[in-house]
Amino acid sequence: MSRSSRDFHAVVLAGGAARRMGGIDKPGLRVGATSLVEKAVDAVAAARRIVVVGPHRANLADDILQTREEPAHSGPVSAIAAGLQALSSSDSDVVVVLAADLPSVDAASIATLLAALDDSSAVFASDQDGRTQYLFGAWRRSVLEQKISELDTPAGQPVRCILPATFDTVTITGVDDCDTPADLRLARERNAVHASGIEFARESIREQLPPLAIRRVSPTDAEGGVLAEPLISAAALPHVDTSAMDGYAVSGAEPWTLREDVAYAGTSGLGALRDGDAVRIATGARVPSGATSVVRDEHVVVGDDGRLRRLPGTPVKDDSRRRGEDWQPETELVAAGTTVTAAVASVALSAEVSEVTIRGPVRARTVFSGNEIRSKGPLDPGQTRDSIGPVLPRYLRSCSIDTADSVHLDDTADAFDDLLDRSTDVDLLVVVGATGGGAADQLRSALERASATTIVNRVPVRPGGSQITAVLPNGVVVLGLPGNPLAAVSTLMMTAPAIVDALTGRTPPAPWLGYLTNTTDVDSDVARIVPVMRDGAGWRADAAVRTAHLLHLVGHNALAVVPPHISPDEPVELLPLLR
Ligand SMILES: Nc1nc2c(c(=O)[nH]1)N[C@H]1C(S)=C(S)[C@@H](COP(=O)(O)OP(=O)(O)OC[C@H]3O[C@@H](n4cnc5c(N)ncnc54)[C@H](O)[C@@H]3O)O[C@H]1N2
Ligand code: MOO
Question: Which stretch is the leader sequence (predicted)?
Fold first, then answer.
């Protein structure tokens, strides 16, 4: 049942010293650009009235009621009671009670909660693990008031004292509260990836681009592709019992009688050992049948009687590798969605897998536009050296994209139409320049004429704001990078990985995060992408970037995606650069 957004009140619990965080004002802590109490208030913005219970906060809007429990710090039930009292004139029988320590709470989670209240006395959010959050709930106001009135005093009472006899729960993902410094750190890390606005663009790309066709190739031809099916072993490793050391295969208890023959690696058909026998064996050789273990050279000695014994004080252990000890046949070794690296190819060889099923690697055509751009010969006035064309394939490669070829286009409508029309032999067109709105900027209009579907059209980030990601009716993806060289590389590094994820079915790699040591130098109203270099345990941002060249990438190890209004306590996403 959906509930009109206006028929509830909200009590936000924003007091209480955070004991596990050293007694600080937890609701005042920032995760991203807003404090936890502001997040709670924003989440219940659709309420008829909002009352915030806790110390007075000057930064809250005037239409938000503020009150305090009596005495201060007398617990959640006391705070709920104070909140209800402040909401005196009641015109709704539903009250949302929300703690101000939920970094991910938003209007959508409150709507889910309200929709689940239905006719029950109360409904509480429960997290993915089934843990119920009693301070993230929607109540019948009459039930809540009744339960509180039954208490001698609300002061010092735990929430469980007021739970109704029956209530519902509804699973809401990301409802984890923030009780410890580690919780806060995790919340800030999660936020870092979303705060800049580029994750929204990347999510659209991952959801909307169609995946490439599947190919079956030998593991050594698959590098750079992404497994479409898991890599499953075709044979056990080791294939047979083998020796892990140079030494002796022995049977039964010492002393052992040494046989004349030797088990070399690659040989087979050695006669079975009988009890009391030993035979010399090389690392990697098959252990002869009848052997009970292998003893390495360092742990044995041949005595005067010509018999083999363990040296006193050496560990009694078997230096063989048993068949299937590393893996058995039919074992999933590498998950679908993994990029085939040299290591993955090698594992396939170890596992006797002759063919793997992959998508990709993505093959791109790079396209350079701009009549002023010149690759060879001296520059005429007004011309600009092509300083990105020759190096772009290196940056594409670091995003797991192969460059098939490179073309230079005139800034004419025909040239762009022709390019989009005949590029059926690649997966991706990476167009540099022509993303702006200027007279010579042809890309958007050409995409429109080609009936392309635009997936990302501009992103609120500097540089790279004018970028575009679209898909042609034949499935070929077009990535438009701004013409300024640093803007082009920054845009590529932020957006191309998501295109690769979508086209190849790759599991998105976990974001790489770090802390800036000079946030004040790069703080801004809009998200920024800036080159960074290591600075002790953190990263120092280069705030003075100019986009017309790549000088600011020299000596820098990564680009940092800096959300608006960053604080030094907030991590930033790092986009690694060429090594
Ligand atoms: N009225 C506005 N104009 C512009 C804005 C804006 O917001 N309002 N944004 C500026 C920014 S920032 C960028 S970035 C560019 C993006 O425009 P385009 O993608 O159309 O790029 P172009 O105009 O083709 O080129 C921009 C700049 O880069 C030089 N360039 C292009 N290709 C190369 C190359 N291969 N090697 C070296 N330099 C290259 C080109 O000569 C231009 O100077 O729009 C701004 N304008
Ligand atoms: O924003 Mo442009 O994309 O800076 O150089």
Answer: none
Integer Cα distance of 558 and 144 in angstroms: 53
Given the CA of residue 486, which atom of ligand 2 is nearest to it? Answer: 5
According to DSSP, the residues that pair with 533 across neighbouring strands are 540
Residues 260/254, Cβ–Cβ less than 8 Å: no
Q: Do 389 and 466 share a domain, yes or no?
A: yes
387 lines ligand 1 (CB under 6 A): yes
Distance CA 235, CA 427 (A): 35
For residue 2, what pLDDT is reported? 43
Check pLDDT > 80 for residue 91: no
529-540 pLDDT, tens digit per residue, is 999 999 999 999
Token pair belonging to 402: 């192969």
ipTM of this complex prediction, to 2 decimal places:
0.91
The atom of ligand 1 lying closest to the CA of 432 is 32
Structural domain span for residue 366: 362-504
- Residue 37 domain-assigned? yes
User: How many whole angstroms separate alpha carbon 568 and alpha carbon 146?
Assistant: 46
- Burial (CB count within 10 angstroms: exposed 0-12, middle 13-18, buried 19+), residue 139: buried
Last residue of a domain, one of 359, 377, 406: 359
Question: Ligand 1: does its nearest atom lie under 6 Å from the Cβ of 374?
Answer: no
Among the residue ranges 102-116, 183-197, 272-286, 549-563, the one predicted with the least confidence is 183-197
Residue 173 Cα to ligand 2 middle (Å) = 36
Provide the mean pLDDT of the chain: 92
Same domain, 40 and 63: yes
Q: What atom in ligand 2 is closest to the CA of residue 547?
A: 5
User: Do residues 79 and 67 both lie within one domain?
Assistant: yes
If 0-12 CB within 10 Å is exposed, 13-18 middle and 19+ buried, where does residue 499 land? buried
Helix (H, G, I), strand (E, B) or coil at 101: coil
User: Is the minimum distance from the CB of 483 to ligand 2 under 6 angstroms?
Assistant: no
On whether both 301 and 337 belong to a single domain, the answer is: no
Q: How far does the centroid of ligand 1 lie from the alpha carbon of residue 36, in Å?
A: 40
Q: Tell me the per-residue pLDDT of 314-344, one tens digit each, with 9 for 90 and over.
A: 999 999 999 999 999 999 999 999 999 999 9
Distance from Cα 463 to the centre of ligand 2, integer Å = 4
CA 544 to ligand 2 centroid distance, Å: 14
Chain mean position to CA 403: 26
